[in-house]
Amino acid sequence: MDGAEESRRTASELVNRFVELFGVTFSPSRNADFVAHVRKAHDEKRYARPVGLWREANRMAAPRVAPDAPPAAAEGDEQAQRKRRKVDGVKAQLAERWKDFMTAVGDFDHRHVQAGGKGKAKFVFSFVEGPLATAIRNGDWVLLDEVNLASSETLESLSTLLQAPDSSLVLTEQGDLEPIPRHPEFRLFACMNPATDVGKRDLPVGLRAKFSEIWVPPPDEDRDALRTIVEGYIGHVAVSDRQVVADIAELYAAVKLLALRSQIADGQNMPPHFSMRTLARALTFAAEFAPTFGLRRALYEGFVMAFTMLLDEKSQVVVRALIDKHVVQPAKNPRSIMERVPTKPTSMADALRIHHYWLEQGPHEPEDPDDYILTPSVQAKVCDLARAVLTRKVPVLIQGPTSAGKTSVVEYLAKRTGHRFVRINNHEHTDIQEYVGTYVSDPHSGKLVFQEGVLVRALRNGDWIVLDELNLAPTDVLEALNRLLDDNRELVIPETGKVIQPRPHFLLFAAQNALGLHGGRK
């Protein structure tokens, strides 16, 4: 169908809709007159004329479809109030029909009238305000997380906002000359790790001086606070074993001390970085799976997952011995704890057992790949990965040399559990658009439409996605992933402003070669 034919057909459909809608809104005398003008303009293919008439009709219909104010005499008259509610309901339906019709008229005007009736829309760009500008207008509280990762241009734009309590921003990109009206309730907060952390830099002195600064020490430096935190995570499942709270606090302090003294090392022979986030993930795991494993076995599995799987073999032995000392041995029956076969969780309708871990089945039919050879070392790798994916929330980073089977183990487990496997190969020139998407021209309408990227589609479908060679990806790709890797588990698409929440089965994996062994890694 060519553009002229599509314009004629769409206009005819709108005329028919208009005749019906106008007839139920206005009297027959006015109806005949107005409709005649619309039909004449349509027959002559002067489409701008009916668009104007439709908008005028919508303006005239507005007071007719608005709900009536209750008359004073009807107060307390139940029958009159019922009648008025019925009339208001009819008017509300009619108002909704007018709204839908005018949306279609606007689309017709854009595609067929403004484009010269050829069915090809013009590319019209409009300025979309970001969340900071919207917050300034509405009086929201804004948190700029990891502010010392922001670009110099971004920090420069913040400087004017921090000049005085009533300072604001001027959207010069939109052509504004006046600043955005600043709501009195608007507040701006920023968080950052110290510049001593890898990849972090300090804020410019002039900008930093404009903030009221607060130093927040880590809560694990206080042993009493540490016990309180542990109690908060597992207290409700430790009613019959109160000693376990103190045991876990001692275990965390001992493991962290080994890391600080560089007495243990990760796979790259570097001291590991353990923090409250590491502890929180281990405790969250234990609290969730205590009904399945028993509390102390769940704590053992949680600490092995969070504290040992990144270590080299020698350090793993040392830390596992500490876990055994503080978690398993204080129990009344330590041997039976480790030999117990967990029962299938009642929360999982369909679950598959991988070694002694019950994993929820995905939306696809499970497969058992014949070409995947399960040697003892590979079986141990599958077992570690199965433990890591139990919660279906925490992202998993797999690191090792080339051909160690990093990606293939994820693909194997995905097939075994009935999940679709998706892979993105990163390189120095990987574009963020490949991840989240970009605007493309619709071949049918000529409009710019947003085409979602691989990562967004995986989030929506609940797939398992592997970001291969992640330490080759550019900085903007890594920063875009930051919010998804956090406990929030959400992805923001800057082009549309949408926040994408993952489907329950979604899991994110990353694979990379060790730093220093191959060129280009960071």
From TrEMBL:
Can you say what this protein is called?
Midasin
Q: Where is this region: Disordered?
A: 62-88
- Domain Midasin AAA lid, chain residue ranges per copy: 226-328
Q: Where does the ATPase dynein-related AAA domain start and stop, copy by copy?
A: 125-201, 395-516
What is the organism of origin for this protein? Answer: Rhodotorula paludigena
Annotated Low complexity bias? 62-74
Q: Which family, according to UniProt?
A: Belongs to the midasin family.
Key words of the record: ATP-binding, Chaperone, Nucleotide-binding, Nucleus
Q: List the top taxonomic levels of the source.
A: Eukaryota, Fungi, Dikarya, Basidiomycota, Pucciniomycotina
Q: Name one Pfam family in it.
A: AAA_5
Which CDD domains has this protein been placed in? AAA
Q: Name one GO biological process term.
A: ribosomal large subunit export from nucleus
Annotated PANTHER family = MIDASIN (PTHR48103:SF2), MIDASIN-RELATED (PTHR48103)
